[in-house]
Design brief:
The chain is mostly helical. It has five helices and no strands. It has one domain (3-76): Flavinator of succinate dehydrogenase (DNA polymerase, domain 1), CATH 1.10.150.250. Helix 3 (35-44) packs across helix 5 (65-76). It is globular and about 35 Å long.
């Protein structure tokens, strides 16, 4: 399995909403990220589903600027 395949597998979550948001982003925007944002995306995938959904829906604010940038890009990939 290649790196993107592994990443797609990690994007499989317990919530359909997260699956859709994350997989679309991996398919359309991940490869354009600079290395610091790719690393931050990997850290996002370590978050519990409920925390990750709250961050992506804007109901929680991340403490790291790089995480904020990645979340903005994930949201933008949905349009």
């Amino acid at each position: 399995m290649d790196d993107l395949g592994r990443l797609r597998w990690q994007c499989r979550r317990g919530m359909l909403e997260l699956d859709l948001l994350l997989r679309r982003f991996v398919d359309t925007g991940y490869e354009a990220l600079p290395s610091d944002e790719r690393e931050a995306f990997g850290r996002l995938l370590d978050y519990p589903d409920d925390t990750l959904l709250e961050l992506l829906m804007g109901r929680m604010t991340p403490t790291e600027g790089v995480i904020t940038r990645v979340i903005q890009k994930i949201r933008a990939a949905q349009h």
